[in-house]
Write a structure and sequence with these properties.
The protein is built from twelve helices and three strands, in the order H-H-H-H-H-H-H-H-H-H-H-E-E-E-H. The protein has about 220 residues and is mainly α. It has two domains: about 140 residues, Ribonuclease III domain (Ribonuclease iii, N-terminal Endonuclease Domain, Chain A), CATH 1.10.1520; about 70 residues, Double Stranded RNA Binding Domain. A hairpin with a 6-residue loop joins strand 1 and strand 2. Helix 2 runs antiparallel to helix 8, helix 4 packs across helix 5 and helix 4 crosses helix 9. The two termini are about 40 Å apart.
């Protein structure tokens, strides 16, 4: 289906949306002087404002820290990938995987990028009210049902360690792969005792995986 029909967009600037779905690899391959990165930057800020306002109004009893954690759950990469796939935004993406040697993991992250770049284009072309309406249809239902897209196990372990006066640390056990596609194996230590080993495409992901194992062993509530 045509992008503009699908999202009920009436525009005189179709090129703006073409930019929103153009990855740098495609730009390089085709000799273009634009890609979606600037719109992604803008969309990230617009998304944060709209979701923050909704959470602020919905949870008047929550303090800043709780609101920040809640917002992170609904604007994290996992959530954006989910929204993007649900909307079928990947169908409009212009990317040349062979030319840029992108990994499957990187291609997946691009689907999160284009959710934000598309939002950036909507904001510039249609205004904030239209952007709010778009986000309300896509995201607010998941906030209302308390959907969890990302649980911050590492922060939960830090809070546990602080409360119990325990030393929580992480140790890289192994890393392998080419520079643009590495895999990390990391352990979590509590007072020097290994409590879990996690694997991820970067250190943060591996630490979260290790912390999750420790959380489950210790039966600690998260989020």
């Amino acid at each position: 289906m045509n992008l503009f029909e699908k999202f009920n967009i009436k525009t005189e600037n179709e090129h703006l949306y073409e930019i929103a779905f153009t990855h740098g690899s495609y730009s390089t391959h085709m000799g273009l002087d634009y890609n979606y990165e600037r719109l992604e930057f803008l969309g990230d800020s617009v998304l944060s404002v709209i979701v923050s306002e909704y959470l602020y109004e919905k949870y008047p009893q929550y303090e800043e820290g709780k609101l920040t954690k809640l917002r992170a759950n609904y604007v994290c990469q996992s959530a954006l990938i989910y929204y993007s796939h649900e909307l079928g935004l990947q169908d409009y993406l212009k990317v040349t995987v062979e030319e840029s040697n992108l990994t499957k993991n990187e291609v997946l992250s691009i689907t999160a990028d284009i959710f934000e770049s598309f939002l950036g284009a909507i904001f510039l072309d249609q205004g904030m009210e239209f952007a709010k309406e778009y986000i309300s249809k896509v995201i607010f239902k998941y906030i209302d049902e308390n959907r969890i897209f990302f649980a911050d196990y590492k922060s939960a372990m830090k809070e546990y360690g602080d409360a119990k006066e325990l030393d929580i640390s992480y140790e890289v056990l192994e890393e392998y792969g080419v520079p643009h596609d590495k895999t990390f194996i990391i352990s979590i230590l509590i007072d020097g005792v290994e409590m879990g080993v996690g694997k991820g495409k970067n250190k943060k992901e591996a630490e979260q995986a290790a912390a999750k194992i420790a959380i489950e062993k210790l039966n600690i509530k998260v989020f």
